[in-house]
Design brief:
With 78 residues, this protein is mostly helical. It has helices at residues 8-15, 31-42, 47-74. The protein has three helices and no strands. InterPro entries: PurE_dom, PurE_prokaryotes.
Length: 78
């Protein structure tokens, strides 16, 4: 199984797209970011998705703030 493309996939996605065609490159083996991008796109016409995405972002921010505080207090080696 191919696990690493060293950026070639990103390069190809940009080179082969004509101008005026939006391109989004997401990482292989990173379904979370792919799903979040899809939700943002679908949210254009779905207010429920927009509010759920907003709540998810708030939750993730809070999680990351807690992790950041822990790193400040204990250091990255703990």
């Amino acid at each position: 199984m191919l696990t690493r493309l060293d950026g070639v996939d990103s390069l190809l996605s940009i080179v082969h797209m004509p101008r005026s065609v939006p391109v989004a490159t997401v990482a292989i083996n990173n379904s979370t970011n792919t799903a979040l991008l899809a939700i943002r796109m679908l949210g254009i016409s779905n207010t429920d998705l927009v509010s759920r995405m907003s709540q998810y972002q708030k939750d993730i921010r809070e999680e990351n703030m807690v992790k950041g505080k822990k790193l400040e207090q204990q250091g990255w080696e703990s």
